[in-house]
Amino acid sequence: MEEGKTTFFWYWFVNIPGVGSAARRKLLDRFGHPEAVYGAKEKEYRDILNQRQCVYLQRSRNTHRINQSMSKLQESGARFVHWESPEYPRKFRQLFDPPYGIYVRGTLPAEDRPVLGMVGSRTATPYGLHTAREFAKVLAGEKIQIVSGLAAGIDAASHRGTLEAGGYTLGVLGGGIDTLYPRENFSLYMEMYKRGGVLSEYNLGVPNSPGLFPVRNRLISGISDGVFVLEAGEKSGSFITIDQALEQGKDVFALPGRVSDPLSAGCNRLIAEGAVLVQRPEDIAEVLFKKYEKFRSKIYTKEVKSLAGTEEPAFKDPECQKIYELLDVNRPTSFNELLEKSGYNFVKLQYILLEMEISQKIYQSAQNTYLRKF
Fold it and tell me: What percent of the chain has pLDDT over 70?
């Protein structure tokens, strides 16, 4: 499928009014691809969507309005990155509820360097703001990429410290790609747009809403290798990000504080429960680089031979092995061909191929065209 055509269908799919992530997953499970959803008849999906959603879907299939909306996004300086885009973050594919499309200004984090999420109170103390800024400077100097939520307090201090060190930082918004909260971060937003990146799961014009921040936080932890929390009270919103990071198997770091300080209560509790106690930036850098190098060495591991001298299956997972057996060392196989031969739906095949590419046993000879490596 042509890239422009693919982008059109994904853009339409993630912007259907009233259709949330759970319904989108069900639609993809059934139809395999947004293009198939676009061409489906109501009777084919009315058991997935309610009556109002069915009406919204039908009315949304307007080529002129979709192209007009895409043009408006481009004119704003933002771009749409969808599930099949080459730059779509691999870490997002591992989420339980991944975004099928994101909106980006600037650049996304490089995948060959560690990423640290930094979160904390919006009403941080001068000590907390200074610590966040200085830690971000040092970590950015070590080529660690910093991600936060572009909010007041710890978020803004982390972004500023990274930029001052000439490092890369990404802001993940809790509203549309053109919305900003608080307004006083406008100059920071513009600087990050030019020297780093800004990301949102929401299109132009979607206002900030408290209900969107927990959804946003899963992307901060999802794109990070670890999350560092500075100054968080017992009921801090930062714990939403921390809980998601733990569910995703990410490292959690915490800055200790005085037992009498309410803004340190959350951090101290995290440390008591097993978070890495952080006293200096190196405490974070050492863990991240050790974990990252372990991951890098793992994906370059060669095939294991059995004692009998015969090769073991390339993959223990039968689904991966099934796809592996459909591939050849010399003749490239397209994604669409694998889709047809395997019988898997679009999203499931994407997940399987991602795992296989991470293992370094297959590779793409061209976009969406696969070969065995050995």
Answer: 92
What amino acid is encoded at 160 in this protein?
A: R
Q: Which fold, 115-296?
A: Rossmann fold (3.40.50)
Q: In this structure, what token pair is assigned to residue 226? A: 């670890």
Residue 55 has pLDDT above 90, yes or no: yes
The distance in angstroms from the start CA to the end CA of the chain is: 28
pTM attached to this predicted model: 0.79
Q: Which CATH number fits domain 318-372: 3.40.50.970, 1.10.10.10, 2.60.40.1180, 3.20.20.300?
A: 1.10.10.10
Quick one: pLDDT band at residue 2, thresholds 50, 70, 90?
low
Q: How far is CA 220 from CA 25, 227, 329, in A?
A: 21, 9, 38
Amino acid (1-letter code) at residue 221: S
Pairs from 349-356 (Cβ < 8 Å, separation ≥ 24): 349/323, 350/83, 350/84, 350/93, 351/93, 352/319, 352/320, 352/323, 353/323, 354/90, 354/93, 355/317, 355/320, 356/315, 356/320, 356/323, 356/324
Written as one letter, the residue type at 369 is: T
Residue type, position 15, single letter: N
Query: In this model, does residue 1 exceed pLDDT 60?
Result: no
Amino acid, single-letter form, for residue 356: M
User: To the nearest 10°, the Cα dihedral for 91, 353, 84, 94?
Assistant: -20
Mean pLDDT of 227-252: 83
- Cα(266)–Cα(264) distance, integer angstroms: 6
pLDDT for residue 365 is more than 80: no
